[in-house]
Every structure is written in C-alpha cells, then in structure tokens.
Design goal:
five-stranded parallel beta sheet; FAD/NAD(P)-binding domain; alpha/beta; elongated; binds flavin-adenine dinucleotide; binds NADP nicotinamide-adenine-dinucleotide phosphate; about 30% strand; about 300 residues; single chain; 19 strands; seven-stranded mixed beta sheet
C-alpha cells in the first residue's frame, strides 16, 4: 500500500510526486507514456520562470530526474478505474491493481479533433496534432494550421522554420492567443491568416492529403485550398474517462476541486490541466502539484489522529 498514488507524469503529477516524496511519503507515479506530458509536444517554452527559453522535453527531463532521488517510484500503466474503498483507494490499470491511502489525479487533457471528413483518413498522411513531432517532415511545404489559440499560433510560428508558407485558418476574425504570440505571428512573413473560416473537408489522393475545402462563415463561400499538411489545434478535452463514475467531474468531464486541490472524495486530489480552472499553463500545473503534494501529508497526519 502506497501513501500516495499519482496518476499522470506531466508537470503537475511530477511536482505532486516531488513534494509528497520530500515529505517522506511512499509515492507511486503511474504514467501511460513517457514522463513529461504535454511538455514532450512543446518545442520551446519561454514563460517558465528561471529559463529564458527551454525545449519542452528538456524541461520534462529536469522535472523528472529529482524524483528518484527522493524515493518516488515510477511505473508504466494506463489507469482505467479508481475505486474509493474508504480508508484506501484502488487504482486499476491495464495490467495491475495498486492500493493507495491517497490519490492525486494529474491526467491532463488531449487534443480535440475537428470531426470533419478526411481527418481520420489523412491522419499521419499530412494531418497532424504535433508540430514538434512532425514539423520537420514538411520542409519547403505549404501548411495549414487550424485554430486561433496559443497552441495554434505558437506552433504556426514553430513550423515556419521548416515550411515555405503557413496559413492559419481561424473561425473568427480575432485570435484567442496571448498578444505577445499574436504580434510575432503578424510580423512573420511566412504566416498568413484566413479569417472567419472553417475546414469542411480534408481532401487528398491515395497517398497524402492535398488540401482542404474551406468555408467562410460570413459569405458562406467554399473554396479548395491546396496544402501539403495540416496541423490541428482546436482545443483540449479532459482525460477523465477512468473517473467518470466517481462523481468528481462536471458535465464536461473536468474535475472540480477546492483551492487545496481536494475533490469531493476524501483523500482524492486533482491537479493541473485536468481541473476545472482558468489558466492551463506549466506554472499553474506545478503550483497545483505542490499544493496537493503537501496536502496529502497533512491529510495522512490527520487520519493518524482519528
Ligand atoms: P499533462 O502535461 O497533459 O500531463 C498529463 C499526463 O498524464 C500525460 O503524461 C498523460 O500521458 C498522463 N495520463 C493521462 N491519462 C492517463 C491514464 N489514464 N493513465 C496513466 N497516465 C495518464 N504551457 C506553458 O506554460 N508554456 C508553453 O509554452 C506551453 N506550450 C504548449 C504547447 C502545446 C502544443 C500544448 C498542447 C500545451 C502547451 N502549454 C504550455 C500548456 C502546458 O503544456 C500544460 O498546461 C501542462 O503540460 C499541464 O500539465 P499537466 O501535468 O496537468 O498535464
Ligand atoms: P484553446 O485556447 O481552447 O483554443 C482553441 C482554438 O481553437 C480557439 O481559437 C477556438 O476558436 C478554436 N476552435 C475550437 N473548436 C474549433 C472547431 N471545431 N473548429 C475550428 N476552430 C475551433 O486551446 P489551445 O490553444 O490548445 O490552448 C490550450 C491551453 O494551453 C490554453 O490554456 C493555453 O493558454 C495553453 N497554452 C499555453 C501556451 C503558452 O503559454 N505559450 C501555448 C500553448 C497552449 P475560438 O477562439 O473561436 O473559441
């Protein structure tokens, strides 16, 4: 039986594991992939205090390394279920069942799909959700980037180092991205914007996508835009399928907590992007993680007194 089981090794989960293990608690950190979470899909981070700029995977490595030093255990596992058994919780993965006195959920979210014709067909054949992973395949090519948030605009900028041309297709005439990122994109000669427009269909041949049917929401006109690739950044959905029967999420699947990261199940906490919150950033994820890592210690001390 572990004192704490942390589910998800992104910035929030790694920080929670660090704080809990530094409090001398036995910690198991469960992750279904490589530690780092979204950091592994991020080219450069330049808003994490202490670093002018740092590659996402490098920051992930720096967060992960100290965990072993403080005795946190790390295991691979896809968590499918959380069972609240009162004094302790059971975590069911695809291959094991673990017991923990407390649980910290840090599963983050995943990219949303556009849900248009051709998206599944051309995924991996021109359609991508990860510029860091696939950008280099598009040297001197024309790319479409879909979305108007931080991810779309920042990754469009990243893609200009490979692509000859990047067209950002956004459904409104105003970006949601932070102003500093917007200004950089407006000043980049390789980036242009297709406003008030949405992708109706992704088209291609037997090998690759070759373009998209794009409709203007104001004029209702539809045209075919040729392109060699498309990067889709239209928001995120919470990864909470495993917890849907526990009553800790809202109707959209985000986990509700108080400011101490407590869910409505005693001993179960949630941190980072998976929470219902206003600002989903690395800084806020690590802030949440530190609070929960400390709180599990306080909770276990209180339980001893009962
Ligand atoms: P995540 O980083 O999403 O980590 C969650 C982890 O949980 C993942 O490793 C996942 O594999 C694991 N997991 C999920 N479900 C399960 C399960 N069932 N079982 C086991 N493991 C599971 N923020 C910034 O501050 N600066 C930036 O420059 C920046 N750039 C970004 C660029 C992109 C393209 C994106 C998408 C986001 C960016 N962000 C940036 C946001 C930032 O990455 C997130 O806010 C942060 O990673 C959230 O951390 P987290 O630990 O809550 O979740
Ligand atoms: P987001 O902020 O939710 O933006 C999603 C964008 O996609 C919005 O512009 C939205 O349009 C558009 N969109 C949504 N559904 C669509 C659809 N079906 N068709 C076409 N367009 C659609 O998501 P995100 O950009 O991935 O950012 C997620 C979180 O990570 C945010 O909290 C963000 O701040 C953070 N992040 C931070 C950084 C950074 O700090 N440098 C970088 C990346 C991400 P509308 O604008 O019209 O709603």
């Amino acid at each position: 039986m572990f004192d704490v089981i942390v589910i998800g090794a992104g910035p929030a989960g790694m920080t929670a594991a660090l704080y809990a293990s530094r409090s001398n608690l036995s910690v198991l950190l469960l992750e279904r992939g490589a530690p780092g979470g979204q950091l592994n899909n991020t080219a450069e981070v330049e808003n994490y205090p202490g670093f002018d700029r740092i590659m996402g995977p490098d920051l992930a490595d720096k967060m992960f390394r100290p965990l072993e030093k403080f005795g946190a255990k790390h295991a691979y596992g896809i968590v499918n279920e959380l069972k609240d058994l009162g004094d302790y919780k059971e975590i069911v993965t695809d291959s094991e069942v673990y017991q923990g006195k407390t649980v910290i959920i840090a599963t983050g979210c995943e990219h949303r799909h556009l849900g248009v014709k051709g998206e599944t067909e051309f995924a991996g054949r021109g359609v991508s959700y990860c510029a860091v992973c696939d950008g280099a395949f598009f040297r001197s090519k024309k790319l479409l980037v879909i979305g108007g948030g931080d991810s779309a605009v920042e990754e469009a900028l990243f893609l200009t180092q490979f692509a000859s041309e990047v067209v950002v297709v956004h459904r409104r005439d105003e970006l949601r991205a932070q102003k500093v990122i917007q200004e950089r994109a407006f000043a980049n000669p390789k980036i242009s914007f297709m406003w008030d427009s949405f992708v109706e269909e992704i088209i291609g041949n037997q090998m690759m996508m070759t373009g998209a049917k794009i409709r203007n929401v104001k004029t209702d006109e539809c045209h075919e835009e040729t392109a060699d690739g498309m990067f889709i950044y239209v928001g995120l959905d919470p990864l909470t399928e495993a917890f849907k029967n526990t009553g800790i999420t809202n109707e959209d699947g985000w986990i509700l907590t108080d400011e101490l990261m407590r869910t409505n199940i005693p001993g179960v906490y949630a941190v980072g992007d998976v929470r219902e919150k206003h600002l989903r950033q690395i800084t806020t994820a690590v802030g949440d993680g530190s609070i929960a890592g400390q709180q599990v210690f306080n909770y276990l001390e209180e339980q001893k007194d009962k």
